[in-house]
Design goal:
five-stranded antiparallel sheet, about 400 residues, three-stranded antiparallel sheet, about 20% strand
């Protein structure tokens, strides 16, 4: 009897402690001021069972986790931030959790992380991408934007960025050399500010910051490959052609051509038609020089040495070897000199004859002032090979 009495109070004390709300991450469930401690009371009140534990007394313990947003709200916020940034799901959720589900703060956090992520990717090779073209009546600008894979190059936001870069470069770029195509270095465009109006790329940003954001969205190294500018003639046409073009103003290979007409009263319809055909010819025929006179001494000397070495293996006389070399040089000119190339539209004539026929048609002399052919991946090499004053069309 005494033993039973002695055990009664400790059991009562234990019971009272058990029915109290538990701190340190555990709590009983309260609803409308009522404390529910047993499983039956909880079910009767319609309280959801998130995490539970039942002791030997039939008392329910519930583990509650503090959260600034409900599960449905969290899913919605993740979806919204993904649509805004196109960042990976893991990064989006991590940023929202770190910012207590404040979507604006989380977006800023992703941008901060993006700078670091983009810098880590900057050492990776980016040889894919597109050329973006913008032109007006005075000049045309070609801007190359590179990425790592063709998959990202086909991304709509990537192409939008490329077009915006070209259009903005067209506004600011002024060519002091009206007679030559000139390079536009990436450094001259990086600090240019553009007001973007794309759903995933909005507001005023520098070119470099915009490129960084797109790199975060796509998960690849995205970089500016530089640009090229070609001026329109005083009277004539500036013709362009883009090959493998998924949308207007975007392509993988570009041909640009400046055709000058001597008589300012001559009609330009025929000039525009032939100019478009020759621009397409540039893409297909890959000329390196405009005329024979423009072939550099180094290029000619190197080709002559190769041809002489090949001819000497025939064992013929020196006179015969010299004739063989000169004959093969004519073939070389037809391959690399624009005016000597067979016209892809009609291979019975070369470009020189095409221009002669065009001049006769419009009643005035028509000349090619300059041309430019660029392919994705060539941008950096062309910028390294050409100085700021050397015509790019003369650069092999």
């Amino acid at each position: 009897m005494g033993l039973t009495h002695c055990m009664k109070r400790p059991v009562e004390i234990l019971y009272k402690r058990l029915i109290r709300p538990v701190s340190h991450g555990h709590a009983s469930v309260a609803q409308k001021g009522v404390l529910f401690t047993t499983l039956s009371e909880r079910y009767a009140a319609g309280v959801p069972n998130n995490s539970r534990c039942i002791n030997s007394f039939g008392i329910l313990f519930t583990r509650n986790y503090a959260s600034a947003a409900s599960s449905s709200e969290q899913v919605n916020l993740i979806k919204q931030l993904r649509e805004r940034t196109s960042a990976p799901m893991k990064e989006v959720k991590s940023a929202l959790v770190a910012c207590d589900w404040d979507i604006e703060a989380a977006q800023n956090e992703l941008r901060k992380r993006g700078v670091a992520l983009a810098s880590k990717k900057s050492s990776r090779t980016a040889a894919e991408g597109f050329l973006a073209l913008a032109q007006d009546e005075k000049k045309a600008i070609l801007v190359e934007l590179n990425c790592e894979t063709d998959f990202v190059a086909r991304n709509e936001i990537f192409q939008h960025l490329a077009l915006c870069l070209a259009k903005s470069a067209l506004v600011i770029e002024g060519s002091s050399q009206a007679s030559a195509a000139i390079p536009v270095s990436p450094e001259s465009l990086e600090d240019l500010k553009i007001n973007f109006d794309h759903p995933k790329l909005t507001g005023e940003k520098t070119v470099q910051n915009a490129i960084t954001e797109v790199a975060v969205m796509t998960g690849e190294n995205v970089k500016l490959g530089g640009g090229f500018a070609i001026s329109a003639p005083s009277y004539g046409v500036l013709s362009t052609y883009l090959h493998t073009s998924p949308m207007p103003g975007i392509g993988r290979i570009a041909g640009l051509l400046s055709l000058e007409v001597e008589d300012k009263n001559a009609p330009l319809d025929a000039v525009q038609r032939v100019g478009s055909q020759i621009a397409m010819h540039l893409v297909a025929a890959k000329p390196l020089f405009l005329s024979k006179e423009d072939v550099t001494a180094d290029a000619l000397g190197n080709e002559r040495d190769i041809l002489r070495s090949q001819a000497e293996k025939t064992g013929k006389s020196q006179m015969a070897i010299d004739k063989m070399v000169e004959g093969r040089l004519r073939k070389y000119y037809e391959e690399v000199v624009l005016l000597e190339q067979k016209f892809i539209v009609d291979d019975s004539v070369n470009i020189t004859k095409v221009l002669a026929n065009l001049s006769q048609e419009v009643g005035s002399t028509v000349k090619i002032r300059n041309f430019l052919r660029v392919e994705v991946g060539e941008g950096a090499k062309r910028l390294e090979a050409a100085s700021g004053t050397e015509p790019l069309s003369q650069t092999a």
